[in-house]
Amino acid sequence: MDDIESELIETRVQLNHLRLFSKANAVLLQRILERYDGIVEQLFDLNKVLYLQSSKNISFVEPKMNLLFLLTTSIKNKRNNFNKSKFRLLLSVNEDINNYGLYLKEKGKKDIL
Predict the structure, then answer these.
(1) What is the pLDDT confidence band of residue 112, given thresholds at 50, 70 and 90?
(2) What is the phi/psi pair of residue 20, to 5°?
(3) Most CB atoms within 10 A, among 14, 64, 71, 80?
(4) How far apart are the C-alpha atoms of 73 and 64, rounded to whole Å?
(5) Alpha-carbon span 43 to 38, nearest angstrom
(6) Whole-number Å distance between alpha carbons of 109 and 113
(7) CB 100 within 8 A of CB 43
(8) How would DSSP label each residue in 2-48?
């Protein structure tokens, strides 16, 4: 397993450990988002087309994350944005894990030939 794959799997584990909305979990989700953004930059260098959706998912989640830290946002709205963001990131990470696994298989086949 290489660094990118292990980073993606660790990110998925961290997302799975986040449960209910709280200020502490919102901070953790923000850190996970920042880390995932760095991973996606590396993936984007490998294949821009394949990982474009991951970049779009990050762009979708970032404004929702900002709402979590505003005092004027209601708790209900914060909870909804937290859950949507977490779910969207989890789906994106899972998709990236699958795509990266396929990329490694294809790369391995090409190396053999």
Answers:
(1) low
(2) -90, 160
(3) 64
(4) 11
(5) 9
(6) 6
(7) yes
(8) -HHHHHHHHHHHHHHH--S--HHHHHHHHHHHHHHHHHHHHHHHH-T
Question: Of all helices (H) and strands (E), which one includes residue 54?
Answer: helix 52-67
pLDDT, tens digit, 9 for 90 and up, residues 24-81: 999 999 999 999 999 999 999 989 999 999 999 999 999 999 999 999 999 999 999 9
- The angle formed by the CA atoms of residues 34, 82 and 77, to the nearest 5 degrees, is 135
Q: Which of 93, 104, 86, 108 is nearest to 7 (CA)?
A: 93
| Tokens read off for 10 | 């660790």
Q: How many residues does the chain have?
A: 113
Q: What is the mean pLDDT of residues 69-96?
A: 96
